[in-house]
Design a protein that fits this description.
By secondary structure, the protein is of the alpha/beta class. The chain folds into six domains: 2-107, GIY-YIG endonuclease (3-Layer(aba) Sandwich); 108-164; 262-422, P-loop containing nucleotide triphosphate hydrolases (Rossmann fold), CATH 3.40.50.300; 438-481 and 543-674, Rossmann fold (3-Layer(aba) Sandwich); 484-541, no CATH class; 687-783, Ribosomal protein S10 (Alpha-Beta Plaits, 2-Layer Sandwich). The protein has 23 helices and 35 strands. Strands 14-15-13-16-19-12-20 form a seven-stranded parallel β-sheet, with helices on both faces. A hairpin with a 2-residue loop joins β33 and β34 (741-751). α6 (190-201) packs across α7 (207-214) and α9 crosses α10. It is globular.
């Protein structure tokens, strides 16, 4: 038989499938060892396709051996990777890395352990493998062949485990058990008797726990072991231990939720548009329970795992022991353990960020994407993918349900729903029947006219004081961290920029340092202007640190906390603030868009949006959409319980439709105006966008190469008469230099469904049919980019 394989190889020259001959039976998803290259180096490869039509004029190399007894990935996972290669112009190595067991593919190892049945067949090998050993260890002490070991595995004489050498190691804890029923202990050996008495009622106890409970030492246990009264042994335990969570009782759905639940079960592809506080999560829980009762698996995606503690608590509390939580803080051993338990069916539910979409379930029944509008579901770094696309592929593949949920659906997904591509479900009322929060727009231009140069309008100041008097909590939202936006000289106009990037550095007062938010470089704040020597150097603009400083001056007796990437780096940091808010130990919480996700505190009755128009100035076509979403989401944090809420929206653009629509809680009003703009300017969902970015440490090299690519593509566009494909560029990127790499862009806009330009890009850059020299540059191709920086 002939097979196609892929290697873990980032070289552009080997970004393809390789074909081999195998005299052994092999399945897709197994690993094989093959000779590679002119030197026939032994390499580990993954079988991704059975080649039924090999070319007859090629002398195929034969594989050396089959590594696996069973596939390590499913056929579905293989198909997902091919889907990514085709849809996102991804390289094979990056695409397949998403579906492989966590860790280093090259370092997957086989460990063998003897079953009792082996004793009667091969006593010598049984004695060697009573404890788990890796194949290389076995070869050193035995002449047994790999083939014989695999035969023993097939006959159930041996157990084989796949782990990652040097990366994946089992977590072993020491235990003690009593092996003599009625041991005779000397009357003077009181400590030994304590051990025996404890083991009679608590046999197979953790070694450390036994010593603590009996107040004895390890020498006492060792003495009992020598007398063959007890046995000390090691036991493999789970690395991922779920924190104790309170039980989350099932709640009866209200009529609005029940209607949504039934509608989702009747349709395969669904978009749930539910206002903040409408009870979408409870609908999710009921759907997952339905799948669980049918023996099916569920994937629940959230934008960022550390920012959604209440969602995690609800799933773990409702389905204890059945939920895998996938997040970036897990080490490779923990990730592998989660993968294995999902692959083996021990876990039936996974909650995680975008990468959880690749979870290796074999009986998938439901995929839920909460807050589907979030850009974090799109990976613009290798491997590039959109979790919504992958979810749609998997739902189709498994005949599973797909549910996208949001209070502020993405314009493109909502457009699909209106065309019938999704079943559209509306939940327009809050679950507790409370009224929508009252939103007030404050024109900050008028505040300036009256002499108010503070960050706070008079209306917001009065509302905060009123809230403090009433023992209620306030959230202040400013989507810019740091103290000030930039530092500039008032004499010569010089702005302090990063030495490696074409961006101004942000001043962080708590660290007393300038930080580049692009590359992370830091610098001390200068005392005089580096350009002219003037002392008139000053901070301009404002971030969350500056807002906190001013808030403390205005409300000195209030308990104030700040939540942004500077104060909240870990799950522990987040939980601390979360618990303090929950316990009403914070009066005013200041933060960035981290505040807009997952917060549900009954005592929060006021939200202040400090500068609603910041996101309007991003310079990309989604700026209106992002502004509407942020205001709506953060406004939804107020008045979620029995207390009514207020939202004060401060802006210098009070007439912008994104801001006015958000203040009126009117998504349809926003959508109707936004979709007209998108159509008139040829933006998604009417047109698609393809970006080519070329960067190099040498500006001339990058510029020359982007022009060369542009010329080839333009010639092919003319040849194929693609009159509807619009070209923008080449030109320097909006931020031309990042990390000392000079960057240039080409953009192509083309009608949705007319994908000939994608074939052209494959010809020119993926297959390199024109032999363009791509050495010395970094090439990035992005379909449907989420930003332009």
């Amino acid at each position: 038989m002939y097979i196609d394989v892929i290697f873990r190889n980032k070289s552009k020259m080997t970004n393809r499938l390789y074909s081999y001959y195998s005299s052994e039976d092999v399945e897709i998803g197994m690993r094989v060892i093959v000779p590679f290259g002119k030197s026939n180096i032994n390499k580990l490869a993954l079988v991704v396709r059975i080649n039924d039509n090999p070319k007859r004029d090629i002398d195929y190399k034969e594989i050396i051996s089959v590594v696996d007894l069973n596939p390590i990935v499913t056929q579905e996972s293989i198909d997902i990777a091919f889907f990514m290669v085709d849809k996102y112009l991804s390289d094979y190595s990056s695409a397949f890395q998403t579906i492989l067991p966590p860790g280093n593919f090259e370092e997957l190892k086989e460990y063998f352990t003897a079953n009792d049945k082996l004793l009667n067949v091969d006593e010598d090998l049984y004695n060697i493998l009573k404890t788990k050993k890796e194949y290389s260890e076995i070869k050193e002490i035995s002449d047994v062949s790999h083939k014989r070991l695999m035969e023993y595995v097939k006959s159930d004489f041996l157990k084989m485990d796949l782990v990652y050498d040097q990366q994946i190691t089992p977590k072993l804890l020491k235990y003690v058990k009593l092996i003599e029923d009625n041991p005779v202990i000397s009357k003077r050996a009181n400590a030994q008797q304590k051990i025996v008495d404890m083991l009679k009622t608590n046999n197979n106890i953790l070694y450390s726990k036994l010593l603590a409970k009996t107040n004895t030492t390890s020498s006492v246990v060792k003495a009992l072991e020598e007398k063959k009264i007890v046995e000390i042994y090691f036991k493999e335990v789970d690395r991922v231990v779920v924190d104790d969570t309170r039980t989350y009782q099932k709640i009866k759905l209200n009529s609005q939720q029940e209607k949504a639940y039934n509608s989702i079960l009747e349709n395969q592809f669904n978009l749930l548009h539910g206002v903040t506080g409408s009870g979408k999560t409870e609908v999710y829980l009921h759907l997952v329970e339905k799948m669980l009762n049918e023996g099916k698996d569920s994937i629940v995606l959230v934008p960022e795992i550390s920012l959604t503690p209440q969602t995690i608590e609800r799933f773990e509390g409702r389905f204890p022991g059945k939920v895998a939580i996938i997040h970036s803080k897990l080490n490779v051993n923990e990730k592998f353990e989660q993968f294995r338990k999902m692959y083996n069916g021990e876990y039936k539910i996974v909650v995680g960020a975008r990468s959880a979409v690749f979870s290796p379930f074999k009986n998938l029944g439901l995929i839920i994407i909460d807050e589907e509008h979030e850009t974090s579901y799109v990976s613009e770094k290798n491997p590039k993918y959109n979790a919504i696309d992958i979810s749609g592929f998997r739902a189709e593949y498994n005949n599973a349900k797909l549910l996208l949920g949001s209070a502020t659906p993405g314009v493109e997904e909502y457009s699909k729903a209106l065309k019938g591509e999704y079943n559209l479900i509306e939940m327009n009322k809050r679950a507790n029947d409370t009224n929508p929060v009252e939103c007030t727009i404050v024109d900050m231009r008028k505040e300036l006219e009256t002499g108010n140069i503070k960050m706070f309008s008079k209306v917001l100041l009065n509302k905060i004081q009123e809230n403090l008097n009433n023992k209620k909590q306030t959230i202040l939202f400013l989507n810019k961290r740091g103290h000030t936006s930039f530092i500039s000289c008032r004499r010569c106009g010089y702005v302090l920029k990063c030495d490696s990037c074409d961006v101004s550095m942000t001043y962080h007062k708590t660290k007393n340092r300038l930080i580049c938010h692009m590359c992370g470089r830091t610098a001390l704040k200068p005392k005089v202007c580096p350009n002219c020597g003037s002392k008139f150097i000053k901070e301009f603009g404002a971030g969350t640190q500056k807002l906190e400083e001013e808030t403390r001056e205005l409300f000195p007796n209030a308990r104030i906390a700040r939540m942004d990437r500077d104060t909240t780096n870990t799950k522990k940091d987040y939980k601390k603030i979360y618990d303090m808010m929950n316990n009403q130990e914070i009066d005013i919480l200041i933060g960035t868009q981290m505040l807009s996700k997952g917060f549900d505190f009954p005592n929060v009755t006021l939200v202040g949006v400090m500068a609603a128009d910041i996101s309007l100035n991003l310079g990309d076509y989604k700026s209106n959409e992002k502004t509407f979403q942020l205001i709506t989401q953060v406004a939804g944090r107020a008045g979620r319980a029995e207390y009514e809420g207020d939202v004060i929206i401060q802006t210098y653009k009070p007439d912008n439709f994104a801001i006015t629509s958000a203040a009126l809680h009117d998504y349809k009003m926003f959508y109707e105006k936004e979709i007209k703009l998108r159509k008139s300017f040829n933006y998604p969902p009417f047109f698609r966008i393809l970006n080519i970015n070329i960067s190099s440490k040498n500006r001339n090299v990058a510029m020359k190469k982007i022009n060369e690519v542009s010329n080839y593509v333009a010639a092919l566009i003319r040849r194929y008469k693609l009159s509807t494909t619009l070209i923008n560029g080449p030109h320097p990127s909006p931020i031309e230099r990042i990390n000392n790499m000079y960057r240039f862009d080409l953009y192509y806009k083309f009608p949705n469904g007319e994908d000939k330009i994608i074939e052209i890009i494959k010809k020119v850059l993926i297959n390199n049919e024109y032999n363009i020299n791509l050495e010395g540059i970094t090439l990035k191709i992005t379909l449907d980019p989420q930003s332009y920086f």
